[in-house]
Amino acid sequence: MRRTRIFGTGKAVPAKVVTNRDLEKFVDTSDPWITLRTGIKERRILEEGRTTSDLAAEAGRAALLAAGLPASSLDAIIVCTVTPDSPLPACAVHVQQKLGATCPAFDLAAACAGFIYGLSVADGLCRTGNFQRVLVIGVEVLSRAMIDWSDRNTCVLFGDGAGAVVVGPSPVDDERGILSTHLFADGTQAGALRVPAGGVALPTSPATVAERQHFVKMNGKGVFAHAVRNIARASLTAIEKNGFAPEDVTWVIAHQANLRILEAVAEKTRLPMAKFYLNIHKYGNTSSASIPIALDEAVRDGTVKPGDLLLMSALGAGFSWGSALVRW
Length: 328
Ligand code: UT7
What we know:
Number of strands: 13
Shape: globular
Radius of gyration: 19 Å
Order of helices and strands: EEHHEHEHEHEHHEEEHEHEHHHEE
Distance between the termini: 16 Å
Structural class: alpha/beta
Number of domains: 2
Bound molecules: oxa(dethia)-CoA
CATH topology of the largest domain: Peroxisomal Thiolase, Chain A, domain 1
Number of helices: 12
Helix content: 25-40%
Strand content: 15-25%
């Protein structure tokens, strides 16, 4: 059977670095607190004048270059984001235009689980036989769209960035490619991580702006507990459904939200921390971009090698979560 292969990866991160020490200057926090509680040392913030689609297109271009494919070869573009350039149209059409592609393009909103959802949808499209090349991009500019820079509970956690992969049916029957994806959601937990205003339930008004209802509100401890439990479960599901054991996994490319979450997942799953690829110290939580950025770095720095078994797993607002197992 022809699997869906990842033919190229790419990333784009803003040049502007904001360190924990920089945050100390305008919010009541400290570098030791952030480092100890999250593992984050710095994050990237998008420069004025650039938008989500600029970052997404840059990552997409890098992935196409790595795959050796022109944008004109794409059959679909999926942009996984909750921070599009504007509510309408989809961010993906701006990306399509910036890349010079002509294919269908749409957005997918599953917050921090966005990339896993996007990869799963792309895998499904390829398996229909009607799509040969699909570009999946995880991108967020939370700093400008959702972060309350006066709320120390959330503003220290997040960063901007984009990561991308080009996928398509493997040219030959082989072992390499996406072995399976597993998606989950639990809407009873929708209140744990949300932006209350700006939609149909609470349209934008002078009052919603004055009350700071357009910023992210989070029950940190609740999210933490669900993240550990569900990322661990989804990871084990992917491993077991394919007849593997945790020892068979070469690298875990998990959502980089909090180093302590990953340490707890490692303990629950018996996946050693040494197998977790980590870059949270450099970028913070970039939501749907975190897995494809980590994947791109792991591929380019030679960590990931052909034949490696990669486990991807993430949880985000919703809650939405999922996992994917890939033979590289
Ligand atoms: O992709 C999914 C997105 N979200 C997440 O993954 C977040 C999941 N949750 C977490 O990562 C953690 O819950 C946090 C990092 C957000 C918070 O860590 P925590 O260990 O749960 O801390 P806490 O909320 O219990 O706060 C402990 C103390 C509190 O002070 P008191 O009440 O003990 O006096 C907070 O007010 O730390 C205080 N605090 C801070 N202090 C310095 C909270 N934020 C900060 C801060 N700097 N930035």
